[in-house]
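Question (not urgent): is this output format expected?
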Amino acid sequence: MSKSAQLSSTSFLLFLLSFLAYLVTCPFHRRPFSQVRLCRVIRLLSLMQRFEELRLILDGFMEGLESFAYVGALLLMVFYVYGILGLYTFGANDPAHFGNLGAAMVSLFRAATLSAWCANFSSYHSQVI
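Got this back:
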């Protein structure tokens, strides 16, 4: 059997298994055959063997994920240090946002990402007025 025929039969088998899993799980809204869906990764792996450029892109992506973990750990440490600083500085004045370390870190994350930072400002603004 040639390489392309083997790839076609593997792709057809994966499609058939995924379709059967969909038919079985759709009426019940459950996912007992989620392992079958993971078999689709085999198709990606077979494409990696055929295309060198795709393998290079995925290798670069995986190496980038390693450095992303270090950046995430560094950001977590920065939010932790400034969360403690905000807890001791603003904890008595704004216990809703800086009453404990978790709330302080969430408030700092909201301010850094500009996600719902208006809630922090509006509660402070209503206390001042």
